[in-house]
Write a structure and sequence with these properties.
heterodimer; A: alpha/beta; 33 helices; 15 strands; 10% strand; B: 18 helices; Gaa1 (chain A)
C-alpha cells in the first residue's frame, strides 16, 4: 500500500508545534484558558470586563483590590490578547517547568501581579497624577523577560557592539522602549514597573514570597497532585523529571510509564494522520458533509437581525416622497369618465357575443382604437405593435398600444415606462388599472417638470406583450414581432400598475423578481416602499406574505418564497421582461379591503415617477443581488453567497480529494494493474494526464515504484458525453407539443431508471477502481464549477440544485471486496431507488404534486419561458444537474454487476 | 506510406465538427466574434470587415481608427465572398487554416526535437504522444474551435509561428526565418522568438550536417533573412496602402502603444485604464521590457532545449501580451503536449487546470454581469482575468520547473526520483 508520504512539507514542522502545545504545563494552560475566556466574555456588550477588571488608578481602594489580580488576564481586543498569549506562553512555560506548578501558582496569582500593579498605581496616581487604566498579560511578559535578563547577565554579562559593551540586563528596557514606540496604546510605565519587579525576581529579592519547598512537597504528596492533575509539574524535578516523566528524544510511540498523563488524545490523532485511508476517504466525506450542513445553516441564520440589514435609499437623487403629489380631486372624475367609456365598449363587446368580461378577454380592435383616441386626445404620440409567439404548439398573439409623453425639459434620451396590462398576473381584467394609466397620462402631460420621456404601454396580457414590446424597443425582436414605429431614449425604470377590482384596497403588494432570477436595483423597491408607506400611508407587502409579523419564521418564509421564484427564473409579471435589458422595474398590486382608493395608487405612482424623474444616471448605487425578508430588511450578496458557495464547494472538495486519491493512494493496488495508456487520440486529449511516482519511502518495495498512470480517456469521454447528451432532453422538452408533456415526463423517468443501469452494464467490464473514482471526480468537478458560477448569476437556483445534488458527493460504487453476497445487491438497489427519487423529472413531479399544479401546465409554462422570455433554468437542469445525476446513479449501478 | 488513416480521421473530424457547429448554430460565429475573450482590437474579424469595406471602396483602411491589422490581409479577404451573406466559405477557410496549423504541429512532433536535441535528450522520452494525437489535442481544444469560429485573424500569426517551428525542427532554416518574418509582420510580438529560433535552427543544422557552422555568422545570416522578409512584406504593404507612416502607426504603433483599452483576458487594459496619464509612457516601457525580458532569461537558462524555450515564450505571451486572447492560450496548449514527458514531473496540473476551468466559466458570467445585467462592474471581469492569468502562470512555471528538474536529473543521475529542495 502506498503511503501518502508525498504530501509537501510545510515551512515549519506542524508536528513539533503541536507537540509543544500538547506538552504545555498545567498552570500555563490555565492562564491561557483564563485569557481566552475573558476575551470571549468581553465580546458581549452588557458587561464590560475591561471596566471591571483592569487597573484604574482612580478607583484603587479596598473594594477594588481584586483588580490587582485580574488585570493580567484581561485584554482589550483580539490582537492584544493574541500577541500577549504568543509572547507569554514560552516564558511562562519555561518558568513553570523550572519551578513547578505550585510555585508558579503561588507567585503569579500573588506577588508577581500585585507588585507591578501596585507600583504602577503608586507612580501613576501619586507621582504623575494621571489616571490611565492598564490591563493585559504584557506585565508578566516583561516581568519574566526582566528575570531572564538577569540570569543571562550572570552568565554572559555583555554584548559587544563594536567598541561598546552593552550589559545584557538592559535588553528588556530596549524591548520595552521599542514596544511603546511601535505599538500604540501601550503603557510604558506599566511595562517599566513589570521589568523592575522582574529584576528583583531575577536577583532573588522575592524569595520571601516563594512558599517553602517542604510545604509544597507536603501538599503535593497529600493530595497526590501528580497522579490527579494532567500536565502537572512537580516541585521535585529530580525525582520525576521535567514533566513527571523522563524526557525522551523520540516524540512518537506510547510509553508505558504510569506517570504519563500527557496527551491522552495524542496517539489517536497521530494514528488518524498517518492513516491514508482516513485522509483520502473519510476526511473528504466529512468535509463535504460539513460544507453542506454549514451552507444550509448559513441560510437559516440569514433572517436573524445580526445577519440582515435595514434597507436604505442609496441613491440621493431619488428623494422619495419629498414632493407633494397633486393627483387628486378633479382627476377622479376624469378617471371615472375613462372607466365608464371603457366599460361601455367592453359591455358592447360582450353583447356582440364575444368573450366574457372576466375570464377570456382579448382587447379587440374597438377597445384598442378607443385607447388610441383617448391618448391622442390627451396630446400624446400613439403607436401600436402586433406580435405573435408560438410555443409548445400554442400561439399567443396580441397588439400592444403605447404612447409617449415627450419630456418638456429633456432631450428624449431617457424615458420611464408605465405599464398597465389588460390582464393582470392572475388573469383578471385590469380595468381600473388601465383607466388609471389613461388618467395619469392625461395628468402627466400637463406637467412641465418631466425631464425624462414617459411611455405608457398597454399590452393585452401580462406574459407576452411587454416582452414583445421591450424586445422591439431594443431591436432584438424575433421575426414574428413587429418593430416599433415610435421610440424614445434609454429606459431608466418601469412601473406596472394593476387594479383588477372595484372596491378600495388596503395595501400594496410589490412584485420584483425578474427573468432568470435577475432583480431590480434595491433602490427602486425601497423607493416604492418608502413612498407608499411613508408618504401615502399605504402598507406594502412582498412575496404574498399578507400577515408578516416580522418573526423569524415569517422572514425565513419570505426569503424562501423569494428564492423559489428566483430559482425557477420565470417572469412573475410584466415587469420581469424589463430585467434582462438592465431596466429596473416593479409591479404594484393593490391587495385587501381597506380605505385606499385608486387616487392613492395614482399618487403613489406619481411620486415614484417624480423620483425616477430626478435620476441623474441609471440606478446603480444600491444592490442588485439581495434577498428580501420584509419590506424593510434584506441580506446582501456578500452575506448570503457563502451558503451557495459552500454547497458548490463541497463538490469541488470531493473532486480534488478523489483526484488525489487516484494518484496518491490506492486502496487495493493489486486490483488495478499498472498499465501504459493506449495511444488513441481521445486518450491523449488532456493535458491533465498527470502521473505520480510514489515518493521514495524506505518501507516501499521497488515494485510499486512504477509510474502510476491515471487512465483518463474513459472517464473524460463519459462525463463530457453525458453533458452533451443532456441537450437531447433539453431539446425535446422545449419543442414538443404541450399535449405530450405528461407522457414525456413519465418516459424520462423510465429512461432515467434504465440509462444508468445500461451504462453500468456496458462499462463494468475492465473498469478499474481508479476509473470509477475518476468518473466521479470529473463529474463532481464540473458540477462544482457550474454551480459556483451559477451562484453568482442566480444564487437560488444554484443553492437548490446544489442541495438536490448533495447525495452525489457520497454515492460510490460498492466494491465486491467490502460487502459481499446478496447484501451488496440489496444495498445497491436500495440506493438506486433512493437516487431515482432525486432525479430531475421525479423532483418535478413531486414538486408539482406538492404545490398542487399540473405537470403539463408547468412544462408548458417552462417551454414558454424558454421560447419567449429566454429563461435558461432548463439548461441548468438538463446540462448540469441531469448529467451529474446520471453519473452518480451509474456509479451505484456498477455495484450491481 | 499512404495517407495516414488516423490523421485523416482526426483532420476530417475536426473539419466536420467546425462545419457542424456552424450549421447547427448559425449565430455562433457572430456571437464568438463579438466576445472579448476571442477577438481583440488587433485580431477582430469585425474590424477586419470594416477595413475591408473601406479598402474595397478605395479609402485608406486605417481611416476611422478601427482597423489595426496588417494590410496584406485585405486583398486576400476581399477575394472571399461577404461573410454576412455566405458564412460558409470563410468558415471553411478558417477551418483549413486550423488543419494547416495542426499539420505543422504533426511535423514538429515527428521531428522529435521536443524530447532530444543537439545537447540534450530527455530522461523520460519514451513517455510521449505521437503527432496525430497532439494535432487532435489542438484541433479539438474548445479554445481553438472558438477561435476558429470567431474568425480571429490571430490564427494567421499562429500559422506563421507554427510553420517557423516546423521548418526549424526539420532543418529548413530559411523557411523558418521567412515564416517567422510573416508572423512578425502580422503581429509584432513573434519577433521576440527570433533568437531562440535561430538557436534551434543552428542546433538542427549541427545535428544534420557534420560541419558546425560558425554561430555568429549563422545568426547574422538568419537575421538578415528575417529582416529581409519583413522589409519585403512591408514594401508590398506600402505599395498597397500608399502611406508608410500611417500604415506603421496604425498597426505596429497601435500594438506597441496600446491606445485601445477594450477589455480582454490580459493584464494590460485595466492597469492602463487606472493609471495616470503622466506615467503611461513609463509603464508602457516597463510592461514591454518585462515581456521581452523572459526571452533572454529563458534562452540562457534552457539553452539546451531551444524548442522548450519557444514553447514557454508562447505561454509568456499568452499571459503578458498587450492584447492576448484565448487563441494565444490555445497555441500554448497546442505545444504543451509535445512535452508529455514532463507531465510526470509537474506538480500543480490539477489546480492550474481547475483555475483555468473556473476562469473559463466565470469570465463570461462576470462579463455578462458587468456589461449586460449591469449588476456587476469591471472589477468582476478583471478579477477573473487575473485568475486566468494565474492559472496560466502556474502551468507555465510548473512546466519550466519540470523541464529544469528533468535537466537536473539528467545531470545528476544519482539523484533521480529523490526529493530535492530548492534553496
Amino acid at each position: 500500500m502506498a503511503t501518502p508520504a508525498a504530501l509537501p512539507p510545510l515551512p515549519f514542522n506542524p508536528s513539533r508545534v503541536r507537540s509543544y502545545v500538547l506538552r504545555l504545563p498545567l498552570f500555563t494552560r490555565l492562564v491561557l484558558l483564563a485569557i481566552i475566556v475573558f476575551w470571549l466574555l468581553e465580546l458581549q456588550t452588557v458587561w464590560s470586563v475591561v471596566q471591571w477588571g483592569s487597573i484604574i488608578p482612580e478607583e484603587a481602594g479596598f473594594g477594588t483590590m481584586y483588580r490587582l489580580n485580574t488585570y493580567p488576564f484581561i485584554h482589550l481586543g483580539f490582537f492584544h490578547a493574541f500577541l500577549n498569549v504568543l509572547a507569554l506562553t514560552p516564558l511562562l512555560e519555561r518558568f513553570e517547568a523550572e519551578h513547578g506548578t505550585l510555585t508558579a501558582v503561588a507567585l503569579f496569582i500573588g506577588p508577581l501581579s500585585t507588585l507591578p500593579g501596585g507600583a504602577y498605581i503608586l507612580i501613576e496616581k501619586f507621582v504623575l497624577h494621571r489616571n490611565t487604566a492598564v490591563t493585559g498579560a504584557s506585565v508578566w511578559v516583561f516581568l519574566l523577560l526582566g528575570s531572564e535578563a538577569i540570569r543571562t547577565f550572570k552568565s554572559n554579562p555583555y554584548f559587544s557592539l563594536g567598541p561598546y559593551k552593552i550589559p545584557t540586563w538592559t535588553s528588556p528596557l530596549f524591548a520595552c522602549a521599542l514596544v511603546s514606540i511601535l505599538v500604540p496604546n501601550t503603557s510604558f510605565l506599566g511595562h517599566m514597573c513589570a521589568i523592575l519587579v522582574g529584576y528583583l525576581l531575577g536577583l532573588g529579592a522575592l524569595k520571601v514570597f516563594v512558599p517553602p519547598e517542604k510545604v509544597l512537597r507536603w501538599i503535593e504528596g497529600k493530595l497526590n497532585l501528580l497522579g490527579r492533575l494532567p500536565h502537572y509539574v512537580s516541585v521535585d524535578q529530580k525525582t520525576y523529571g521535567r514533566y513527571g516523566v523522563l524526557p525522551t528524544t523520540t516524540t512518537g510511540g506510547e510509553r508505558g510509564t504510569p506517570m504519563s498523563f500527557l496527551g491522552s488524545s495524542q496517539p489517536a490523532v497521530r494514528k488518524l494522520r498517518s492513516n491514508p485511508h482516513f485522509l483520502f476517504v473519510h476526511l473528504p466525506h466529512i468535509l463535504s458533509f460539513i460544507c453542506i450542513v454549514a451552507g444550509v445553516v448559513w441560510l437559516l441564520l440569514l433572517p436573524l437581525n445580526d445577519y440582515s440589514r435595514q434597507t436604505y435609499i442609496s441613491e440621493n437623487a431619488l428623494l422619495p416622497g419629498q414632493v407633494h403629489a397633486y393627483f387628486s380631486g378633479s382627476e377622479q372624475h376624469v378617471f371615472r369618465g375613462y372607466k365608464k367609456e371603457l366599460e361601455g365598449i367592453l359591455a358592447s363587446q360582450t353583447e356582440d357575443g364575444q368573450e366574457g368580461r372576466k375570464d377570456e378577454f382579448t382587447p379587440a380592435y374597438v377597445v384598442i382604437s378607443a385607447l388610441q383616441s383617448v391618448l391622442k386626445a390627451a396630446g400624446l404620440k400613439v403607436a401600436t405593435q402586433n406580435y405573435e409567439y408560438t410555443s409548445s404548439g400554442i400561439t399567443h398573439q396580441g397588439q400592444n398600444v403605447y404612447a409617449i409623453i415627450q419630456a418638456p425639459r429633456g432631450d428624449a434620451t431617457e424615458a420611464i415606462v408605465l405599464v398597465a396590462a389588460w390582464k393582470t398576473v392572475d388573469d383578471e381584467l385590469n380595468l381600473n388599472g388601465v383607466s388609471l394609466a389613461l388618467t395619469l397620462a392625461r395628468y402627466f402631460k400637463r406637467w412641465s417638470l418631466w425631464s425624462k420621456d414617459i411611455i405608457f404601454l398597454f399590452p393585452p396580457d401580462s406574459e407576452t406583450g411587454t416582452q414583445a414590446w421591450i424586445d422591439a424597443y431594443h431591436d432584438m425582436q424575433p421575426a414574428f414581432v413587429q418593430p416599433l414605429p415610435l421610440k424614445s431614449g434609454a429606459l431608466q425604470g418601469g412601473l406596472v400598475i394593476e387594479y383588477p377590482f372595484d372596491h378600495r384596497f388596503e395595501s400594496l403588494h410589490i412584485l420584483y423578481d425578474g427573468v432568470n432570477g435577475q432583480l431590480p436595483n434595491l433602490d427602486l423597491f425601497n423607493t416604492a416602499v418608502s413612498i407608499a408607506g411613508g408618504q401615502m400611508g399605504i402598507g406594502a407587502s412582498l412575496q404574498e406574505m399578507w400577515d408578516h409579523n416580522d418573526s423569524y419564521e415569517m422572514r425565513l418564509q419570505t426569503i424562501m418564497r423569494g428564492m423559489v421564484k428566483q430559482g425557477f427564473g420565470y417572469a412573475t409579471g410584466p415587469h420581469s421582461s424589463f430585467m434582462p435589458y438592465h431596466i429596473d422595474a416593479i409591479t404594484l398590486q393593490p391587495k385587501g379591503e381597506g380605505w385606499q382608493d385608486e387616487m392613492a395608487l395614482g399618487r403613489t405612482v406619481e411620486g415614484l415617477c417624480r423620483s425616477l424623474n430626478n435620476l441623474l444616471e441609471h440606478l446603480h448605487q444600491s444592490f442588485f443581488f439581495y434577498l428580501l425578508m420584509q419590506t424593510n430588511r434584506f441580506v446582501s450578496i456578500g452575506t448570503y453567497l457563502p451558503s451557495a458557495m459552500l454547497i458548490a464547494g463541497n463538490f469541488t472538495i470531493m473532486a480534488i480529494a478523489l483526484w488525489l486519491r487516484t494518484g496518491y493512494f490506492q486502496q487495493n493496488t493489486g486490483n488495478s494493474p499498472v498499465e501504459k495508456p493506449k495511444l488513441t487520440e481521445e486518450q491523449q486529449a488532456t493535458p491533465a494526464a498527470d502521473e505520480r511516482e510514489p515518493k521514495t519511502n524506505n518501507t516501499q518495495d521497488p515494485a510499486t515504484k512504477n509510474i502510476k498512470e491515471r487512465q483518463l480517456a474513459l472517464p473524460l469521454t463519459l462525463v463530457v458525453g453525458l453533458h452533451l447528451l443532456g441537450l437531447l432532453p433539453l431539446y425535446i422538452f422545449n419543442n414538443i407539443s404541450h399535449t405530450y408533456y405528461t407522457t414525456a415526463t413519465y418516459t424520462s423517468i423510465l429512461a432515467n431508471a434504465v440509462l444508468p443501469l445500461l451504462l453500468a452494464a456496458f462499462l463494468t467490464h475492465g473498469l478499474t477502481t481508479q476509473q470509477s473514482l475518476l468518473i466521479k471526480s470529473f463529474s463532481l468537478l464540473i458540477l462544482g464549477l457550474f454551480l459556483s458560477t451559477l451562484a453568482t448569476l442566480n444564487f437560488s437556483l444554484s443553492f437548490m440544485i446544489g442541495l438536490l445534488c448533495a447525495p452525489l458527493s457520497f454515492v460510490n460504487r460498492i466494491k465486491p471486496q467490502t460487502i459481499t453476497g446478496p447484501l451488496r445487491y440489496v444495498l445497491a438497489a436500495l440506493s438506486l431507488v433512493l437516487l431515482n427519487v432525486l432525479s430531475p423529472p421525479v423532483v418535478l413531479l413531486g414538486s408539482c404534486a406538492y404545490f398542487g399544479v399540473d405537470v403539463e401546465s408547468v412544462l408548458t409554462q417552462a417551454a414558454f419561458g424558454w421560447d419567449v422570455w429566454g429563461v435558461w433554468t432548463q439548461v441548468v437542469v438538463w446540462c448540469v444537474w441531469w448529467p451529474a445525476w446520471v453519473t452518480g446513479a451509474a456509479l451505484v449501478g456498477f455495484s450491481l454487476f | 506510406m499512404g495517407v495516414d488513416r488516423r490523421k485523416a480521421a482526426v483532420f476530417g473530424g475536426a473539419l466536420a465538427l467546425r462545419l457542424l457547429l456552424l450549421v447547427l448554430f448559425p449565430s455562433l460565429p457572430d456571437l464568438l466574434t463579438g466576445r472579448v475573450e476571442v477577438s481583440t482590437p488587433v485580431t477582430s474579424f469585425k474590424r477586419l470587415q470594416e477595413g475591408l469595406f473601406l479598402y474595397t471602396r478605395n479609402v485608406s483602411p486605417y481611416d476611422g481608427g478601427v482597423f489595426h491589422q496588417a494590410p496584406l490581409l485585405l486583398p486576400f479577404f476581399s477575394l472571399l465572398p461577404n461573410p454576412q451573406l455566405f458564412p460558409l466559405p470563410t468558415a471553411v477557410f478558417y477551418s483549413l487554416i486550423d488543419l494547416v496549423n495542426a499539420n505543422a504541429l504533426v511535423t514538429i512532433s515527428d521531428s522529435g526535437q521536443a524530447v532530444s536535441g543537439r545537447f540534450y535528450s530527455a530522461l523520460r522520452k519514451h513517455i510521449r504522444w505521437d503527432g496525430v494525437s497532439i494535432a487532435a489535442w489542438f484541433l479539438f481544444n474548445p479554445f481553438t474551435v472558438a477561435t476558429c469560429l470567431g474568425r480571429s485573424t490571430g490564427v494567421f500569426t499562429t500559422t506563421g509561428i507554427l510553420y517557423a517551428f516546423a521548418s526549424a525542427t526539420t532543418g529548413n532554416s530559411l523557411n523558418a526565418m521567412l515564416a517567422l518574418g510573416f508572423a512578425s509582420y502580422l503581429s509584432i510580438y513573434p519577433a521576440l522568438l527570433l533568437i531562440p529560433l535561430v538557436l534551434l535552427c543552428h542546433d538542427r543544422q549541427v545535428q544534420g550536417a557534420k560541419a558546425t557552422p560558425e554561430i555568429g555568422l549563422f545568426a547574422l545570416r538568419h537575421f538578415a533573412i528575417f529582416a529581409m522578409s519583413i522589409v519585403g512584406l512591408l514594401g508590398i504593404s506600402t505599395v498597397l496602402i500608399g502611406d508608410f507612416y500611417t500604415l506603421v502607426s496604425a498597426t505596429y504603433g497601435f500594438q506597441l502603444l496600446v491606445p485601445d483599452l477594450t477589455p480582454n483576458v490580459g493584464l494590460w487594459w485595466y492597469f492602463f485604464i487606472e493609471i495616470f496619464d503622466s506615467f503611461r509612457e513609463f509603464f508602457l516601457g516597463v510592461f514591454w521590457l518585462h515581456l521581452a525580458a523572459y526571452m533572454g532569461g529563458l534562452t540562457v537558462r534552457l539553452r539546451r532545449q531551444p524548442l522548450f524555450v519557444l514553447t514557454s515564450l508562447l505561454g509568456v505571451f499568452a499571459i503578458f501580451k498587450p492584447y492576448p486572447s484565448i487563441s494565444d492560450a490555445s497555441l500554448y496548449f497546442a505545444l504543451l503536449p509535445l512535452y508529455r514527458h514532463l507531465f510526470p514531473l509537474m506538480r500543480y496540473t490539477f489546480f492550474a487546470i481547475s483555475a483555468l476551468l473556473y476562469a473559463t466559466l466565470l469570465g463570461p458570467a462576470f462579463y455578462h454581469l458587468w456589461i449586460y445585467a449591469g449588476s456587476g462592474n469591471a472589477n468582476f471581469f478583471y478579477a477573473i482575468t487575473l485568475v486566468w492569468s494565474l492559472g496560466l502562470s502556474i502551468l507555465l512555471a510548473d512546466t519550466v520547473f519540470a523541464a529544469l528538474r528533468d535537466e537536473w536529473e539528467h545531470d545528476n543521475p544519482e539523484k533521480r526520483g529523490k526529493e530535492a529542495k530548492q534553496v
